Every structure is written in structure tokens, then in C-alpha cells.
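re: that chain from earlier
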Amino acid sequence: MTKANHKSNHIISFSPAEGWRVVHLDDDAPSGFWIEPMAGWLTVAETEICSRTYNPVENQPPLTERRRDVRPAVFADFMVDVSEEASFWKLLAPGQPDPTPEDVADKREELAVLARRRQHFTKAQ
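^ sequence. v structure.
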């Protein structure tokens, strides 16, 4: 990949995920989170895109041989990979209970510890 190019995800397929839900952390929500239904699973293949033409670069392996990921998706005005959203916390399988206040507190503490480690690491460099 040249510096002028970037990677993008080419959607290969979509599989519905009935009953699955996406949990987002939210300081403004009384519970500390909000939940939305998950539309399904996106299977994507990494594709190199020319930054000049915005077309796929030639001489890439075929889609069947490229790195693939499966990602959770929701509908907005278009299909969105929720795992890339800053507020994304976790997925709930069908029948799995909503997070408890203790779960939220534990997650917030985990994030605070990670932030302190990052800050300490940054200062050490």
C-alpha cells in the first residue's frame, strides 16, 4: 500500500441477527447506557483504495483471499458498523439481560484504569 492510498472495508455479505442488541455507554442516560437492536452481522474484506481516484487499487488479491472480519451492524440511514462507534460497549445475545448498575460501574472503572495507563505511558515517553 502506498502512502497515498488507504484501506476500506468492502461489504461481502449481511446476515440478520434477530434478537441481538447493542449496548452503548452514555453519561447522559440515567442508567449510564442505552440499547438499540442489532440489525445483523456484516462480513467485510479489507480493500486498498486509491486516494486519488477513490477506486480499488489494481493488483490486489481477489476478495475471497483478503483478510475478512465479521462486524455487528445497525441501521441508521445506512448500515453502520457499531464496533467503530466511540460509545460502543458490548453486544447482548437473545435473552441476555440488560447490564446492571454494577456492570456499568465496573466498565467505567476499567475504562478509567486504561486511561490512567495511557496517560502514564504517554508521560513516560
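The beta strands are 6-16, 21-25, 33-37, 40-49, 68-75, 79-81, 88-92.
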